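@channel sequence for tomorrow's demo:
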Amino acid sequence: MKIKIIENGSLKENCYLLEQDNNYLIVDPGSDFEKIMSFIPKDSKVLAILITHGHEDHTGSLKAFLKIYSCPVFSKNSTEESFYQVGLFKFKVIFTPGHSPDSITFYFPLEKLMFCGDFIFKGSIGRCDLAGGDMLKMTKSIEKIKKYPPDITLYPGHGKFTTLGDEIEKNYFFNS
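C-alpha cells (generated this afternoon):
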C-alpha cells in the first residue's frame, strides 16, 4: 500500500490517500478539495472515505467528494467496531473517544499502520477541552490502544507520523 500525505487547510490537517492497484481510500478529506483531488489520478477508483472524527478540518471536502465518487463512508456514525475489507484494503475500526465522542482509529494490521486523527499526535494527544471532549474517555482509549503491537506506525490528523512504541515510551499522556 502506498500512502500520500496531503497537508491542507489553515490548521494543516493531514489528509491521507491510500493506494493499491490504482484503487484509493481517502482518510479525512480536509478543507482543500482541489489540492486533494490533484493527487488522485483521473483513471483511478476511490473505493471508500474514512473519517476519524467529524471536525470540519477533517471533513470539509466530504460532500464534494461524494458528489464525484459514489462510495461508502466509514465513520463512527455509520460503522461498527469491527474488521472490514474494501477491495484489497483490510482494516479494523477501533472506537477511540476522548478528543471527540465520534473519534475512531483505522488499523491496517497487515501493514502495521493506524490512522488516528486527532486522538494521538507525536508526543501528545488531541485536545479534550473542545465540545464533546472527555479526558476520562481519552484515558480509556489510550489504555485500549496500548495493547496493540508497538511497531505500528501512527498517522495523526496533524503533524508528523510516529510509532506506538515511541508514544508508549515517551508520550507523557501514555504514562500519567
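heads up for whoever presents: Helices lie at 33-37, 56-59, 62-68, 135-145, 164-170, 172-175.
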